[in-house]
């Protein structure tokens, strides 16, 4: 297999634990990084990806953050797409009605109203610490800067998420990607961007999506995996993801991405 670019999702894909990659993965990335660009593609904020870039020895390569809403290379923003302040305020009013908490992300800033089991998991998994303040305060502060959100995380119970999901589809579908990562979490990103569109923005002259091999596990990876030259799912991926790829490798805890690289690249 001869590809110019390798793109990989992080959580549930490249990471063999909740917040790190295996030594085997580091070794395989070091073996190939001089002949293909390795680009990390994630829903994470920049600082929760940069430490992994450094561990893999690819810190000079771009990173695709927030499912494509923010693309950074060598500390510089290549592209930047936010949900508007008015849109975020409108969503907050709906969430408040259903007693759903919001985590707001912009650049390297993560704001939540209070700690919880979910927030503590996120702190551990991403090695990031949030700002604890009222969502109203955050939104007012961002409005004065005319800034919106790169990502919103909705946190509630299954019943509240079941109730708000059809409302999101009905009222916000044209402006937002709403992706339910599990029964109690919904991730929201700007509609105009995706992991695939961000990859396209990083193609150099003479390169096409056919030059890209990509790895993923979840619904927000499907568009990327279907449209690049070769899509690979880890064994722990959603069934819908495994159905659309060319190959399924070992699960993430078994360093499936690294094993595929060793066997085929």
From TrEMBL:
One of its GO terms (cellular component) is cytosol. This is Cof subfamily of IIB subfamily of haloacid dehalogenase superfamily/HAD-superfamily hydrolase, subfamily IIB. InterPro entries: Cof, HAD-like_sf, HAD-SF_hydro_IIB, HAD_sf. The lineage of its organism: Bacteria, Pseudomonadati, Bacteroidota, Flavobacteriia, Flavobacteriales. It comes from the Bacteria. It comes from Flagellimonas flava. SUPFAM superfamilies: HAD-like. One of its GO terms (molecular function) is magnesium ion binding.
């Amino acid at each position: 297999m001869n590809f110019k670019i390798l793109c990989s999702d992080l959580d549930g894909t490249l990471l063999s634990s909740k917040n790190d990659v295996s030594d085997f993965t580091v070794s395989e990335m070091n073996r190939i990084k001089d002949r293909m660009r390795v680009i990390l593609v994630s829903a994470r904020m920049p600082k929760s990806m940069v430490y992994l870039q450094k561990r893999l020895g690819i810190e000079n390569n771009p990173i695709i953050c927030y499912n494509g809403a923010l693309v950074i290379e060598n500390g510089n923003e290549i592209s930047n797409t936010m949900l508007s302040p008015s849109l975020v305020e409108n969503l907050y009013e709906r969430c408040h009605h259903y007693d759903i908490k919001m985590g707001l992300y912009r650049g390297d800033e993560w704001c939540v109203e209070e700690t919880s089991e979910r927030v503590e998991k996120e702190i551990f998994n991403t090695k990031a610490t949030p700002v604890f303040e009222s969502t109203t305060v955050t939104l007012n502060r961002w409005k004065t800067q005319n800034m919106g959100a790169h990502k919103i995380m909705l946190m509630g119970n299954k019943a509240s998420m079941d109730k708000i999901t059809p409302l999101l589809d009905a009222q916000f579908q044209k402006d937002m990607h709403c992706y339910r990562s599990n029964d109690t979490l919904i991730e929201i990103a700007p509609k105009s961007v995706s992991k695939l569109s961000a990859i396209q923005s990083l193609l150099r002259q003479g390169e096409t999506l056919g030059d890209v091999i990509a790895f993923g596990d979840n619904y927000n990876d499907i568009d990327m995996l279907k449209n690049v030259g070769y899509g690979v799912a880890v064994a722990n991926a959603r069934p819908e993801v495994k159905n659309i790829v060319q190959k399924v490798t070992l699960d993430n805890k078994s360093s499936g991405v690294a094993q595929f690289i060793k066997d085929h690249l």
